[in-house]
Design brief:
The chain contains 6 helices and 9 strands, in the order ααββααβββββββαα. Among the domains are: about 75-95 and about 155-265, PH-domain like, CATH 2.30.29; about 105-155. The protein has a 6-stranded antiparallel β-sheet with strand order 1-2-3-4-5-8, with helices on one face. A 3-stranded antiparallel β-sheet has the order 6-7-9. A hairpin with a 5-residue loop joins strand 1 and strand 2. Helix 1 (about 20-45) packs antiparallel against helix 2 (about 45-70), helix 2 (about 45-70) runs antiparallel to helix 3 (about 100-125) and helix 3 (about 100-125) runs antiparallel to helix 4. By secondary structure, it is an alpha+beta fold. The protein has helices at about 20-45, 45-70, 100-125, 130-155, 230, 235-250; strands at about 80-85, 90-95, 160, 165-170, 175-180, 185-190, 195-200, 205-210, 225-230. The longest helix is centred in the middle third of the chain and has 27 residues, at about 130-155.
Length: about 270
Amino acid sequence: MLPIQDPPDGWPRARRSVGRILSLAGCVLLGLTAAFLAVGSALDGGVTEAVAFGGGALLLAHLAVPGIMTMRRPEPSARPSVEGVNDRGERGLAFTYSRWLYYCLAVTLALTVLGLAGAASASALGGTSSGWAVAALFAAPGIYLAWLLIVMLRLAPGTVVLTSTGVYHRSLYVEHFVPWEAISGVRPVPGPSPWIAVVAGPAGATRIRRHGGPLGPKAEGLPLMIIRAQWLRPDALPAYQALKHYLEHPGERLHLDTAVENPGGL
């Protein structure tokens, strides 16, 4: 078994960079500018312009807020353990994705789809061949993003569930299960997007199911299981600690289906 590392100081706060800070500042500035233009257009009676600028401001706001959140280190959750189930209905200890980040991403995708739909409709209004061609160029990504939004909401919320048989991770578009016997280590990885690496080798009991289609997101880093800490937010550190605990104490895994009723087992 590989040595299990303790989290570095400040983990899982995202590593800051000049480029990231400038991008975030630019996003905020553009959002404020769009909001100002939306108000100005509304006062001047330009309904269409006000809606367009207002939608842009909302989109930029929902891009900026997650960026600000993920640059701060979340306080580890102190709430009681919760129960969850994996893809086969096995009960276990669960750590759930942030609903606030789901909301921001869902609104971002929805506003993008609406913007593409509006652009496609405006292009098709003339009834010309070139107009229909441009409309199709806007409609195609809009339809695909709408489908991704529906799939994401159907799978929501993402979760990590520790059961007596293994570790189950449902991300935005991928379900991944790894049996305990295939896991050789757990590592907290720092960086611009901190993550938990469940180090695992190939195993017959491993299960992977993609829901995003051939062009959708794939499972990262196989055969490792990659769990992005930013999505777990306050549960990131408790999730790592639980993974570490049950990897080091295999005899206690049989009680994972009752770990919620007896949280003192951790």
